[in-house]
Amino acid sequence: MTTDKKTYMRIMDPKLDSTVKFKNLHNLLVSLGFLCTIKGDHYIYRIKGMPYYINLQPKGNMAKPYQVKQVRDFLNMYGLEVK
What single-letter DSSP state applies at residue 49? Predict the structure, then answer.
């Protein structure tokens, strides 16, 4: 199983929100086709054809749990998943 698939499965489990590494979350979003712009400590992810974007900030080397939930909701809303 690839790292992206493991990260995706971790994101989809609400009990694991506090265990997602920011680097893995970033790599997953990029592999799904998101473009990343960095402004300070804000990582802004956009994907062509979608009106919304995702704004994330790392907390050390981990992703913030509430932002992992936002990513999960976004992926579910638009039907994005790792194949």
Answer: T
